Amino acid sequence: MATQHISSALRAPAPPSRPYAKANPGFGKRSTPDQRPPRPDDFALLPERERYVAGYVDHLPDGAAMDIKSLAKSLPLYGQMAVGSALRALGVAGHLRHVRCPADAGGGQIRWITRTYWSRTARDNEWWATFLGGAPAAPEAPHPPAPAVPQQRTPVRHTEETPQEAPQEPPADAPSPAYLALAQLGRTDARLALSAADCAALEEAAAAWLARGVNADYLVKALTAGLPASVDSPVGLVRRRLRDKLPPLPPTVAQAPTTGILEHRPMVECTECGAPGRPEALPDGLCRACRTPGPSADTTTAPGPPADRDVAAYVGTLREMLRLP
Q1: What is the dihedral of CA 107, 110, 111, 112, to 10 degrees?
Q2: pLDDT tens digits for 153-208?
Q3: In this predicted structure, what is the pLDDT of residue 242?
Q4: Quick one: 97 and 190 in the same domain?
Q5: Looking at residues 41-50, what average pLDDT do you find?
Q6: How far apart are CA 312 and CA 247, in angstroms?
Q7: What is the C-alpha separation between 283 and 249, in angstroms, rounded?
Q8: Same domain, yes or no, for 124 and 45?
Q9: Are residues 13 and 135 in the same domain?
């Protein structure tokens, strides 16, 4: 969490009087649910700069631009580097996360967009991981509907439909594709001839195969391949093969039922460097490299002892130096 520092030297800015920068559709600020009502001391424990930036961001509506450049233009007291450092500190304090979400780009293509989730109430890492892990991929703002084009009315000719032109509907008691595939087994190999009762008993198990993307020909070939010389119980053998050889689920990405957008889990971006990762892998909104930065340039370390393999050479060098006048 960020260093707590209470100061009243600089108040948070008032809501912007001029139009704020709006992000492109699908980008920008997103408010998290279940936040407490705003209070004057919401960010009182933050340092002065972070409190100022947080107050401005909290006033922005959803969809406002949250990139460093846009915020720096609206906050003249701080430049881009200062705003970037403030956003990093606000992420550590539990107020925001940068998240990559999938969006439909049309034509079956998916592009990734970056959103900033904002919480006036500071949240811990467990809350963010749970919220972002279960947050569905929301679609972009819908495009405006195309203007309606008036259609010309044409006279409708009412003709009497002949029995040959009437659509033929399958009878209600027509056998299912799974039943027909089982009935085909005996015609493919007489050793697996099944009765009508056998096909009805195994119909549900065969339907599970077809539900996993295989067709009837594949099912028949899989059940008739490698049969023993004699089959005492065709129904028992088919039942066992239907159970033991059930194919895996097809490796396809499920489609969202209402939006048609591919269901991907959101990826959190490191607030410092932008590296993506799972919510649980970026505590405080920072990747491992940014959480544990390397030593600074002015840091000096004492030289360690020489390696074992260099001891002889090291002692020899010291002796030569002692011989010098």
Answers
A1: 160
A2: 444 444 444 444 445 555 657 889 999 999 999 999 999 999 999 999 999 999 99
A3: 94
A4: no
A5: 90
A6: 66
A7: 34
A8: yes
A9: yes
- Residue 149: inside a domain: no
Largest pairwise CA distance in the chain: 125
Distance separating alpha carbons of residues 51 and 47, to the nearest angstrom: 6
- Angle made by CA atoms 118, 122, 124, in degrees to the nearest 5: 105
Residue 6: the pLDDT is 47
Phi (first) and psi of residue 66, to 5 degrees: -120, 15
Pick from 81, 54, 63: nearest CA to 27: 63
Give the single-character DSSP code of 124: -
Supply the range of the domain harboring residue 192.
177-244
Question: What are the tokens at 167?
Answer: 């659509």
In a domain, 159, yes or no: no
Q: How many domains does the chain have?
A: 2
Reported as a pLDDT band with limits 50, 70 and 90, residue 295 is low
Classify the C-alpha dihedral 277-278-281-286 as positive or negative: positive
Shared domain check, 92 and 185: no
Domain shared by 239 and 270, yes or no: no
Whole-prediction pTM value? Answer: 0.47
Q: Are residues 40 and 82 in the same domain?
A: yes
Q: Which of 99-103, 166-170, 298-302 has the lowest mean pLDDT?
A: 298-302
H or E element in which residue 109 lies: strand 109-118
The reply to whether 6 and 130 lie within a common domain is: yes
Residues 90 and 3 sit within 8 Å (Cβ to Cβ): no
Contact 108, 120 (CB under 8 A): no
Distance CA 85, CA 274 (A): 13
Q: For tokens 């007291």, what's the residue?
A: 77
Return d(Cα 317, Cα 15) in angstroms, integer.
Answer: 72
Identify whether the C-beta of residue 275 lies closer than 8 Å to the C-beta of residue 285: no
